[in-house]
Specification:
It is built from four helices and ten strands; from the N terminus they run E-H-H-E-E-E-E-E-H-H-E-E-E-E. The chain has one domain: 3-methyladenine DNA Glycosylase, Chain A (Roll), CATH 3.10.300. By secondary structure, the chain is an alpha+beta fold.
Length: 216
């Protein structure tokens, strides 16, 4: 089924959004933006409600830390491209490459609030409950994102991030990243960000009191 959705209401983020040097700020700024896929004319879209920042230099949790491999080569390219990798041989995890060429920063998209093409998301996931895209692996499945899409330009018409005409104000909470215990002291970086009170996040804040990073 092809969905007639007016994607023009989601203005694509410009390349300059991704080329900034502060990956932590970009991870915060991605909250509330809309991730969109167009798979052979089938459109799905979801609001980004949870992200994690990874720095290519001095961050032991980052895939590019201290090594450049065929898998991470896309991370060393220009910001504004997708880095999709396979986790545990099962889950396709979608990341946004940021910063200038050679820096290897990226933001993991951890959860979406479904907006458009929800029937398609349910069909892809064989799942009809509310949390269709609450987790990095499940959101990729719902959105049709596959590891073969790594390197895709986020200014393309297949996979992109846009801003809604009706972005609301919200509070941002921060916490440590998930599943990076191997990163020693870097595992304690409060680089996971969520929209406060949003029921579609993959996990709530683990610590109390939570880190409040203000309104957006």
């Amino acid at each position: 089924m092809v969905f007639e959705i007016n994607t023009s209401i989601y203005e694509k983020l410009p390349r300059s959004f991704y080329l900034r040097e502060d990956v932590v700020q970009i991870a915060k700024d991605l909250l509330g933006k809309v991730l969109i896929t167009n798979m052979d004319g089938v459109i799905t879209a979801g609001k980004i409600v949870e992200t994690e920042a990874y720095c290519g230099r001095g961050d032991k949790a980052c895939h590019a830390n201290g090594k450049r491999t065929p898998r991470t080569e896309v991370m060393y390219g220009e910001g504004g491209h997708a880095y999709v990798y396979l986790c545990y041989g099962i889950h396709h995890l979608a990341n946004v490459v940021t910063n200038h060429e050679g820096q290897a920063d990226a933001v993991l998209i951890r959860a979406l609030e479904p907006m458009e093409g929800i029937d398609t998301m349910e069909e892809r996931r064989k799942y009809t409950k509310a949390k269709l895209a609450s987790g990095p692996g499940t959101l990729s499945e719902a959105m049709g994102i596959h590891v073969r899409m790594t390197g895709t330009d986020l200014l393309s018409d297949q996979l992109w991030i846009g801003r809604s005409e009706t972005e609301e104000k919200f509070e941002i909470l921060s916490d440590t990243r998930i599943g990076v215990e191997y990163a020693e002291e870097d595992a304690l970086k409060p680089w996971r960000f969520i929209i406060a009170g949003n029921k579609f996040v993959s996990k709530g804040i683990k610590k109390s009191p939570a880190n409040h990073t203000g309104l957006k």
